[in-house]
Amino acid sequence: MTQVQVTQETAADEIQSFAEYQAVEKALQPYIASAKTGDGALARTAFYDHAYIVGSVEGEVYVMTADEFEGAVNEGGPAPDVQSRIALIETSGPAAIAKVEFLNWGGFRFTDFFVLYKTDGEWKISSKVYDSHAKN
Prior knowledge:
Blueprint: H1 11-37, H2 40-44, E1 47-57, E2 60-65, H3 66-76, E3 83-92, E4 95-105, E5 108-119, E6 122-131
Parallel strand pairs: 1-6
Antiparallel strand pairs: 1-2, 3-4, 4-5, 5-6
């Protein structure tokens, strides 16, 4: 007979897991708020210096640094009617992924996929890829 070892998540593990989810959610908030305000500097705070953003709008592929993305957010200006929701967060140690949906960010619907990493107790976005849906 083969014995299968089953590990159970402890209450402490559950609390830690939930806390990490909340920490990633908090790390995404400056980016999400920048959609409404058009504040590129606010968006920039969510990214590591090395971060890249890749996606396409109306068939044109954009590859930007975090600094260039800051300028794009500023140029786009405020989107006071934008709606957003965090659709997914998954963590594993210091690594995480997240999916955020936006509706009416400058007239576009976006799905953003983020890779985040935690250093010195702080989560930041390492990269982002996105889809602009019908405007792609």
